[in-house]
Amino acid sequence: MELCDDESDLRTRLAASGYNIVDQRHYDETRFAVVDRRQYSVGPDFPRLVACDLQDAGIPINVTDVAYTVDLSSEPPVPVSTEHAEEHLVAMLRDGSK
Q1: For 51-65, b where at least 16 C-beta lie within 10 A, e where not — what string?
Q2: 55, 63, 79, 80: which could form a disulfide with 38 (CB 3.0–4.6 Å)?
Q3: What would be one Pfam family of this protein (predicted)?
């Protein structure tokens, strides 16, 4: 807070993102470690929910804000290698820079 130009604006923006200043002690104590990292090729065979799935289930297309979870605890889908994922990312960045 001491390093910002507008402490009130910073507090407002933090609150808007869900950060509550009174919980700072809890945030300071929370630590995370990456224990597993997997990359997936997301294509037509990847689990998904699209408009035609809703139509097939008899749900009107005007349904909005649908949320769902893809369970990646078992295969398929099969993760791709780190090398494959990095190659794909490089290709995407190269194509996007045109």
Answers
A1: eeeeeeeeeeeeeee
A2: 79
A3: DUF4420
Statement: residue 68 has pLDDT above 70: yes
H-type alpha helices, 5-81: 7-16, 24-29, 51-56
> Hey, is 80 helix, strand or coil?
strand
- Of 16-20, 49-53, 76-80, give the lowest mean pLDDT range: 49-53
Q: Which residues pair with 39 in a beta bridge?
A: 80
The amino acid at residue 31 is R
**Residue 25, both tokens:** 């002690």
Amino acid identity for residue 35 in this structure? V
β partners of residue 20: none
Given a contact cutoff of 8 angstroms between Cβ atoms, the answer to whether 38 and 73 are in contact is no
Region 7-18 average pLDDT? 92
Per-residue pLDDT at 97? 58
Taking the domains of the chain in order of start, what are their residue ranges?
A: 1-31, 36-96
